[in-house]
From TrEMBL:
InterPro entries tied to this protein: DUF7770
The protein's name in its UniProt record: DUF7770 domain-containing protein
Species assigned in the record: Dichomitus squalens
Residues of the DUF7770 domain: 33-178, 216-366
Pfam (any one): DUF7770
Length: 366
């Protein structure tokens, strides 16, 4: 299952939360398909909206997002969200009513028991709506959602295609499920496709100016932690104002989607920082004129997209540490940036030892 599901951002307490609504959501320009020259189509995902909970969880929804993290093989991202829906400025949503008492665990169990986490995208890396369509069909077959849910989605898609044909390619792009046993896909270390997933990066943002780099850590609960969360670290490239894009930041997030091999998620964000309720942030000053493209090129030229996590699936901060060192060596960030991060990490580990394990967990570059 490690190659097909990435659920480290799912808070364990949320698994037993009650689902009050299922929102089928498609966002503007979440990815630009191959050869599109930046013309974005909608990317589809599911949000499980949660009922009120007295166990202290801040989550308002759980995201189910099938992405081609190791093309053509997909990874199902399951993540607790503090928002009830996507933060995309341009999006469409279709509410689907669940039966009373439906839980997040039931939805995940249905997906896994039907082996719907085992999905391959088409040659262009498309097929998210086809996956979602089939999941909704299984939920309807199991009588876990309203009668006619699939027909409702079909009618919604047809109407949106009529209104915005460029965003909804027809015929619908279809991946395929691989129900029979196959060897789990190994990360292809000879191609960039296996190490970087940048379909959520708006092409226009590559040449945007970076005004600040924010080192951010927010809570996730690792496997076997029984809900005791530790921090997951990532980088936000905060962008200068620009009328050609709504993005306010570009996220750089190294995650073990195919353990131990990592995938660098590069994504445009309409928020300037993480929207997690529990987080810590360290601002790093960038040199004048630094662009997103320069940062990505530095990572790729130093082969820092090729990263393996440790046996526990940890090592995100070690990756950031090394990227920041390369940026400092290239004089693209303030002098002493690495020492600043070291001091910040030491102080936070003193204040929140349960959230920041010591010694520092280290992966390795290959």
């Amino acid at each position: 299952m490690t190659a097909t599901i990435y659920d480290k951002a799912l808070r364990p307490v949320d698994k037993n939360r009650r689902v009050t609504q299922i929102a089928v959501t498609a966002c503007d320009s979440v990815y630009a398909p191959m050869g599109s020259e930046g013309v974005g189509v909608f990317h589809w995902r599911i949000y499980l909206l949660l009922g009120p909970d007295g166990d202290g969880s801040a989550s308002r929804s759980v995201l189910l997002d099938m992405v081609p993290a190791n093309p053509p093989f997909g990874t199902l991202i399951i993540a607790s969200e503090d928002n009830v829906d996507s933060d995309g400025l341009v999006k469409i949503e279709l509410p689907v009513a669940p039966v009373d008492g439906l839980t997040v665990r039931q939805v995940i169990d249905l997906i896994v028991s039907n082996r719907m986490d085992r999905y391959k995208f088409d040659a262009s890396g498309s097929g998210c709506l086809f996956w979602l369509w089939n999941v909704l069909q299984q939920l309807q077959n199991a009588r876990l959602v309203e009668d006619g849910a699939v027909a409702k989605l079909q009618a919604f898609h047809a109407e949106r295609t009529r209104l915005e044909p460029s965003r909804h390619p027809v015929p619908i792009r279809q991946g395929e499920f691989y129900y029979q046993h196959v060897d789990e896909p190994r990360q292809d270390t000879s191609t960039m496709a296996a190490t970087i997933y940048d379909k959520a990066l708006r092409p226009v943002d590559k040449d945007r100016r970076v005004t600040q780099i924010t080192v951010t850590a927010s809570l996730y609960a690792p496997a076997g932690s029984e809900g005791v969360g530790i921090f997951h670290w990532r980088l936000y490239l905060v962008l200068g104002p620009d009328r050609v894009s709504t993005s306010r930041a570009v996220l750089l997030d190294m995650v073990p989607t195919n353990p131990p091999f990592g995938t660098l998620i590069i994504a445009s964000k309409d928020n300037a920082h993480s929207n997690a309720l529990i987080k810590i942030e360290l601002p790093i000053a960038s040199v004048d004129g630094l662009t997103v493209r320069q940062v990505i090129d530095l990572i790729v030229s130093n082969r820092m997209d090729r990263y393996k996590f440790d046996a526990s699936g940890s090592g995100c901060l070690f990756w950031i540490w090394n990227v920041l060192q390369q940026l400092q060596n290239a004089r693209l960030v303030e002098d002493g940036a690495v020492a600043k991060l070291q001091d910040f990490h030491a102080e936070q580990a003193r204040l929140q030892p349960g959230k920041i394990p010591l010694p520092l967990r280290r992966g390795e570059f290959y």
